[in-house]
Write a structure and sequence with these properties.
With 224 residues, the chain is of the alpha+beta class. It contains six helices and eight strands; from the N terminus they run H-E-H-E-E-H-E-H-E-H-E-E-H-E. Keywords: Repeat, RNA-binding.
Amino acid sequence: VFIAQSRASGSHRDVEDEELTRIFVMIPKFYTEEDLREKFKAYGDIEYCSIIKNKTTGESKGLGYVRYLKPSHAARAIEECDRSYKAILAEPKNKSSESFEQDYFTNNLRQEPRGNMLPFCGQPEFCIFEKNENRIQEPVSKRLSVVSRLPLIQEQLFALFDLIPGLEYCDVQRDPHTNSGYAVIQYSTAASAIYAKYKLHGFEYPPGNRLTVIFLEDGSDSSE
Protein backbone atom coordinates (compact mmCIF):
# COMPACT_ATOMS: atom_id res chain seq x y z
CA VAL A 1 0.00 0.00 0.00
CA PHE A 2 1.39 3.39 -1.00
CA ILE A 3 0.27 6.79 0.29
CA ALA A 4 0.02 9.30 -2.54
CA GLN A 5 1.32 12.79 -1.88
CA SER A 6 -0.62 15.92 -2.69
CA ARG A 7 0.72 17.95 -5.62
CA ALA A 8 0.95 20.91 -3.27
CA SER A 9 2.99 19.03 -0.70
CA GLY A 10 6.44 19.81 -2.12
CA SER A 11 9.20 17.25 -2.26
CA HIS A 12 8.80 13.63 -1.25
CA ARG A 13 11.20 14.18 1.64
CA ASP A 14 9.04 17.03 2.98
CA VAL A 15 5.95 14.84 2.78
CA GLU A 16 7.68 11.91 4.43
CA ASP A 17 8.97 14.08 7.24
CA GLU A 18 5.82 16.06 7.90
CA GLU A 19 2.87 13.89 6.96
CA LEU A 20 3.76 10.22 7.10
CA THR A 21 5.87 9.69 10.20
CA ARG A 22 3.96 11.56 12.93
CA ILE A 23 0.81 10.14 14.53
CA PHE A 24 -1.73 11.76 16.83
CA VAL A 25 -3.20 9.67 19.66
CA MET A 26 -5.68 9.86 22.51
CA ILE A 27 -4.15 8.78 25.82
CA PRO A 28 -5.09 8.63 29.51
CA LYS A 29 -4.34 11.94 31.21
CA PHE A 30 -1.94 10.32 33.66
CA TYR A 31 0.43 9.19 30.87
CA THR A 32 3.94 10.65 30.81
CA GLU A 33 6.03 10.96 27.66
CA GLU A 34 7.93 7.88 28.82
CA ASP A 35 4.66 5.94 29.14
CA LEU A 36 3.74 7.02 25.61
CA ARG A 37 7.12 5.94 24.24
CA GLU A 38 6.89 2.60 26.04
CA LYS A 39 3.46 1.88 24.54
CA PHE A 40 4.41 2.72 20.96
CA LYS A 41 8.04 1.65 20.64
CA ALA A 42 6.91 -1.87 19.69
CA TYR A 43 5.87 -0.60 16.23
CA GLY A 44 9.17 1.01 15.21
CA ASP A 45 11.99 3.39 16.08
CA ILE A 46 10.66 6.56 17.70
CA GLU A 47 12.28 9.95 17.12
CA TYR A 48 10.31 11.73 19.83
CA CYS A 49 7.06 11.72 21.83
CA SER A 50 5.19 14.74 23.13
CA ILE A 51 2.08 15.25 25.23
CA ILE A 52 -0.27 18.18 24.66
CA LYS A 53 -0.78 20.13 27.86
CA ASN A 54 -3.00 22.93 29.05
CA LYS A 55 -0.97 26.12 28.69
CA THR A 56 -2.37 27.55 31.93
CA THR A 57 -2.40 24.57 34.31
CA GLY A 58 0.24 22.37 32.69
CA GLU A 59 -2.10 19.38 32.91
CA SER A 60 -2.26 16.84 30.13
CA LYS A 61 -5.16 17.19 27.66
CA GLY A 62 -5.13 13.44 27.09
CA LEU A 63 -3.60 13.83 23.61
CA GLY A 64 -0.12 13.22 22.27
CA TYR A 65 2.16 12.93 19.26
CA VAL A 66 4.53 10.10 18.37
CA ARG A 67 7.10 10.71 15.63
CA TYR A 68 8.66 7.63 13.99
CA LEU A 69 11.78 7.44 11.85
CA LYS A 70 9.96 5.70 9.01
CA PRO A 71 6.46 6.04 7.50
CA SER A 72 6.04 2.26 7.66
CA HIS A 73 6.47 2.38 11.44
CA ALA A 74 3.78 5.05 11.79
CA ALA A 75 1.44 3.06 9.52
CA ARG A 76 2.04 -0.07 11.57
CA ALA A 77 1.30 1.78 14.81
CA ILE A 78 -2.00 3.09 13.43
CA GLU A 79 -2.99 -0.40 12.24
CA GLU A 80 -1.90 -2.43 15.25
CA CYS A 81 -2.24 -0.25 18.35
CA ASP A 82 -5.26 -0.60 20.60
CA ARG A 83 -8.31 1.13 19.10
CA SER A 84 -8.75 3.13 22.31
CA TYR A 85 -5.80 5.32 21.25
CA LYS A 86 -7.71 6.41 18.11
CA ALA A 87 -4.39 6.81 16.28
CA ILE A 88 -4.34 8.86 13.07
CA LEU A 89 -1.69 10.57 10.97
CA ALA A 90 -1.04 14.02 12.42
CA GLU A 91 -1.45 17.23 10.47
CA PRO A 92 1.84 18.85 9.35
CA LYS A 93 3.29 21.26 11.90
CA ASN A 94 2.76 24.22 9.59
CA LYS A 95 -1.01 23.81 9.95
CA SER A 96 -2.93 24.98 12.99
CA SER A 97 -2.47 22.31 15.64
CA GLU A 98 -5.26 23.69 17.82
CA SER A 99 -7.85 23.50 15.04
CA PHE A 100 -6.62 19.98 14.24
CA GLU A 101 -7.01 18.92 17.87
CA GLN A 102 -10.48 20.46 18.01
CA ASP A 103 -11.54 18.66 14.82
CA TYR A 104 -10.15 15.43 16.25
CA PHE A 105 -12.17 15.82 19.44
CA THR A 106 -15.29 16.72 17.47
CA ASN A 107 -15.02 13.75 15.11
CA ASN A 108 -14.00 11.16 17.68
CA LEU A 109 -15.89 12.10 20.83
CA ARG A 110 -19.10 13.87 19.88
CA GLN A 111 -20.28 12.32 16.63
CA GLU A 112 -19.43 8.62 16.90
CA PRO A 113 -22.17 6.14 17.86
CA ARG A 114 -21.58 4.29 21.10
CA GLY A 115 -20.27 0.77 20.68
CA ASN A 116 -17.61 -1.20 18.87
CA MET A 117 -17.45 0.72 15.60
CA LEU A 118 -14.50 0.29 13.26
CA PRO A 119 -12.12 1.93 12.97
CA PHE A 120 -12.46 4.53 15.73
CA CYS A 121 -14.30 2.91 18.63
CA GLY A 122 -12.38 -0.01 20.03
CA GLN A 123 -13.66 0.45 23.55
CA PRO A 124 -17.11 1.81 24.40
CA GLU A 125 -15.85 4.13 27.11
CA PHE A 126 -13.98 6.15 24.48
CA CYS A 127 -17.11 6.73 22.38
CA ILE A 128 -19.85 9.10 23.40
CA PHE A 129 -22.94 9.47 21.28
CA GLU A 130 -25.16 12.20 22.61
CA LYS A 131 -28.80 12.54 21.63
CA ASN A 132 -28.93 16.03 20.20
CA GLU A 133 -32.22 17.13 18.67
CA ASN A 134 -30.56 20.04 16.90
CA ARG A 135 -28.09 17.78 15.15
CA ILE A 136 -30.32 14.85 14.22
CA GLN A 137 -33.46 16.24 12.62
CA GLU A 138 -34.39 13.23 10.50
CA PRO A 139 -35.88 10.00 11.89
CA VAL A 140 -33.21 7.34 12.12
CA SER A 141 -33.56 3.67 11.21
CA LYS A 142 -31.50 0.58 10.47
CA ARG A 143 -32.03 1.00 6.72
CA LEU A 144 -30.24 3.43 4.40
CA SER A 145 -30.79 4.62 0.85
CA VAL A 146 -27.68 5.22 -1.29
CA VAL A 147 -27.98 7.34 -4.45
CA SER A 148 -25.23 7.85 -7.02
CA ARG A 149 -24.96 9.68 -10.35
CA LEU A 150 -23.01 6.70 -11.67
CA PRO A 151 -23.93 2.98 -11.66
CA LEU A 152 -23.05 1.10 -8.48
CA ILE A 153 -21.37 -2.31 -8.40
CA GLN A 154 -22.94 -4.71 -5.91
CA GLU A 155 -19.70 -6.33 -4.68
CA GLN A 156 -17.83 -3.05 -4.29
CA LEU A 157 -20.63 -1.24 -2.49
CA PHE A 158 -21.13 -4.23 -0.17
CA ALA A 159 -17.41 -4.19 0.66
CA LEU A 160 -17.56 -0.44 1.36
CA PHE A 161 -20.52 -0.57 3.74
CA ASP A 162 -19.33 -3.83 5.31
CA LEU A 163 -16.49 -1.82 6.89
CA ILE A 164 -19.10 -0.87 9.50
CA PRO A 165 -20.06 -3.93 11.61
CA GLY A 166 -23.61 -5.31 11.38
CA LEU A 167 -24.32 -5.12 7.63
CA GLU A 168 -27.27 -7.41 6.89
CA TYR A 169 -27.81 -6.82 3.19
CA CYS A 170 -26.94 -4.55 0.28
CA ASP A 171 -29.31 -4.41 -2.70
CA VAL A 172 -28.03 -2.45 -5.71
CA GLN A 173 -30.37 -1.29 -8.50
CA ARG A 174 -29.84 0.74 -11.66
CA ASP A 175 -32.12 3.21 -13.40
CA PRO A 176 -32.09 2.15 -17.10
CA HIS A 177 -33.14 5.62 -18.23
CA THR A 178 -30.57 7.75 -16.40
CA ASN A 179 -27.86 5.14 -15.72
CA SER A 180 -27.69 6.40 -12.13
CA GLY A 181 -27.18 4.02 -9.22
CA TYR A 182 -29.44 3.28 -6.28
CA ALA A 183 -29.04 0.87 -3.37
CA VAL A 184 -30.75 -0.11 -0.13
CA ILE A 185 -28.48 -0.94 2.81
CA GLN A 186 -29.62 -2.51 6.07
CA TYR A 187 -27.75 -3.00 9.34
CA SER A 188 -28.59 -5.06 12.41
CA THR A 189 -28.71 -1.94 14.60
CA ALA A 190 -29.63 1.71 14.17
CA ALA A 191 -26.27 2.67 15.70
CA SER A 192 -24.44 0.99 12.83
CA ALA A 193 -26.67 2.74 10.29
CA ILE A 194 -26.09 6.14 11.94
CA TYR A 195 -22.35 5.56 11.89
CA ALA A 196 -22.40 4.43 8.24
CA LYS A 197 -24.41 7.50 7.21
CA TYR A 198 -22.07 9.82 9.11
CA LYS A 199 -18.92 8.29 7.58
CA LEU A 200 -20.13 7.61 4.01
CA HIS A 201 -22.57 10.41 3.14
CA GLY A 202 -20.62 12.54 0.66
CA PHE A 203 -17.94 9.86 0.26
CA GLU A 204 -16.49 9.89 -3.26
CA TYR A 205 -17.02 6.53 -4.94
CA PRO A 206 -15.71 6.33 -7.55
CA PRO A 207 -13.53 9.46 -7.18
CA GLY A 208 -15.46 12.54 -8.26
CA ASN A 209 -18.86 10.93 -7.63
CA ARG A 210 -20.27 11.76 -4.19
CA LEU A 211 -22.63 9.25 -2.62
CA THR A 212 -25.86 10.50 -1.06
CA VAL A 213 -26.80 8.43 1.99
CA ILE A 214 -30.13 8.97 3.80
CA PHE A 215 -32.26 6.99 6.23
CA LEU A 216 -35.14 4.84 4.97
CA GLU A 217 -38.15 4.04 7.13
CA ASP A 218 -37.88 0.43 8.29
CA GLY A 219 -40.98 0.25 10.48
CA SER A 220 -39.05 0.22 13.76
CA ASP A 221 -39.39 2.61 16.68
CA SER A 222 -36.76 5.27 15.89
CA SER A 223 -36.96 6.75 19.40
CA GLU A 224 -34.52 4.10 20.60
